[in-house]
Specification:
- By secondary structure, the protein is α+β, with helices and mostly antiparallel strands.
- The protein has one domain: 3-Layer(aba) Sandwich (Aminopeptidase).
- 28% of the residues lie in helices and 27% in strands.
- The protein has a seven-stranded mixed β-sheet, with helices on both faces.
- Bound molecules: coenzyme A.
- Coenzyme A binds next to β4, α3, β5 and α4.
Length: 161
């Protein structure tokens, strides 16, 4: 039976290892242990008998916008619906917080497209550009991440549509 829940502080080192394994392949940004402890409440994890098998985080930018970050499912358990469940855990939380829009910068646009996200342009996310992109060496022509956005219906008591 799957288990999606908040991580325990004792799992942060394991969480970093999961993120490291995906960041070396360029799927997600690396995170330091310090960053992970500071932002651990942003995360949900999937845990099974082998330990942490997946993670995702919801990072609030401002009153009406949050970013989906660091969605990862361990290689051996992909294509079983775990990525979708992790994503919907943070979408549920965003609805509970009445956040109207969430976005993601991803190299996996087809996955997010299947969950209702639509392609947008970085220019539609000026806060993200100022906060992160402007400092990124890939900002501009070499950026290979696709910005995608999802409007949330907040009139349904936090239930996934
Ligand atoms: C993207 C990722 C999280 C998907 O996790 P997953 O558990 O394999 O996905 P799911 O099984 O929940 O898939 C949900 C749907 O998306 C589809 N899907 C999954 N990965 C896909 C991909 N790479 N490309 C296109 N479609 C994909 C599935 O077939 C499924 O479709 P269906 O509803 O029609 O059956 C996983 O491949 C991963 O960890 N990738 C590396 C890290 C990464 O790129 N993360 C995104 C950065 S923000």
């Amino acid at each position: 039976m799957y288990k999606i829940r908040k991580p325990k502080l004792s799992e942060v080192v394991q969480l970093k290892a999961l993120i490291d394994s995906a960041s070396v392949k360029g799927f997600v940004l690396p995170r330091t242990l310090e960053e992970l402890y500071e932002n651990v409440r942003d995360f949900y994890v999937y845990a099974d008998e082998s330990g942490l098998g997946g993670c995702v985080s919801l990072h609030i930018d401002m009153e009406d916008l949050a970013e989906i970050r660091t969605l990862i499912v361990r290689n051996d358990i992909r294509r079983k619906g775990i990525g979708r469940m992790l994503l919907h855990a943070v979408l549920d939380e965003a609805r509970e917080l009445s956040i109207p829009k969430v976005y993601v910068l991803t190299r996996c646009p087809d996955f997010f497209g299947k969950q209702g996200f639509q392609k947008t342009s970085l220019e539609q996310l000026p806060y993200k550009i100022r906060k992160d992109c402007a400092r990124c060496p890939k900002y501009g022509e070499t950026c290979d991440e696709v910005p995608m956005i999802l409007s949330l219906n907040n009139d349904n008591n936090g239930k996934v549509l």
